[in-house]
Design a protein that fits this description.
The protein is α+β, with helices and mostly antiparallel strands. The chain has one domain (2-219). It has helices spanning 2-5, 9-12, 26-39, 43-47, 53-74, 82-94, 123-146, 154-174, 199-209, 212-219; strands at 16-17, 97-105, 111-118, 120-121, 177-178, 182-191, 194-197. Strands 1-7-6-3-2 form a five-stranded antiparallel β-sheet. The radius of gyration is 21 Å and the shape is elongated.
Length: 220
């Protein structure tokens, strides 16, 4: 599931034309990028003229679509359920916790921005509960079939499993916990006179703000 951690990076890497380095607010820019990608809040995005409200909405939607598509593919879920999962993941993304701190200018005119975050424990509990549900449902269906009882059709089984995954994600979010505050850094660098977040740093941020590693342990 590590690939999920990198899905937002390409759409989060929105550049801002560089001018006088002293007037560039790297902290505000970083907050604008993160708020737009996770909170669907385009306030800073528009105020800093990173893009228009319409462009910010497109950037947010591209990131959300990338995450949803990855889950639909991973769990072999048809597009019929895309809207349901989009709503769930929009809620999950909006509940991340981070605070953008000070930026330190570097000799190469880049900035190192410190971000404090609290890792969100939402995916591992959901998948652990979902795995248990799948085991229980499968056992019930096998037992019913062995007893000659009527069992759901394949489509009905798939629907039950999808609903179970949705319910487990919703329940996990409703009871979400967060780890103690920690810090990471995001470099804002000049690329062809355009201030741009370092993609590796964005990938790191995405990987630490959610419990992806714990999720991998549950899955594998």
């Amino acid at each position: 599931m590590k690939k999920i951690a990198a899905l937002l990076v390409c759409v989060m890497s929105v550049g801002l034309l560089g001018g006088c380095g002293n007037s560039f607010d790297a902290s505000a820019y970083t907050k604008a990028v993160l708020d737009n990608a996770y909170k669907n809040d385009s306030t800073g995005f528009v105020e800093l003229e990173v893009g228009t409200a319409e462009e910010s909405a497109e950037v947010y939607q591209e990131g959300l679509d990338a995450v949803v598509d990855s889950w639909l593919t991973a769990y072999e879920i048809t597009d019929d359920y895309e809207a349901d999962f989009e709503a769930i993941f929009a809620d999950i993304l909006s509940n991340v916790k981070y605070t953008v701190g000070e930026a330190e200018k570097q000799d190469d005119d880049s900035f190192i921005v410190t971000v404090t975050y609290e890792q969100m424990n939402v995916f591992a509990p959901a998948i652990e509960a979902y795995t248990t549900t799948v085991t229980e449902l499968t056992a019930a269906w096998v037992e019913a079939a062995a007893a000659g009882e009527e069992i759901p059709t394949e489509d009905e089984m798939v629907a039950e499993l999808v609903i179970a995954l949705e319910d487990n994600l919703k329940n996990s979010l409703a009871n979400v916990t967060y780890d103690e505050a920690a810090t990471t850094t995001i470099r804002i660098e000049l690329v062809d006179n355009v201030y741009t977040p370092n993609t590796d740093d964005l990938a790191t941020f995405e990987s630490v703000i959610f419990d992806y590693e714990e999720m991998e342990e549950v899955v594998y």
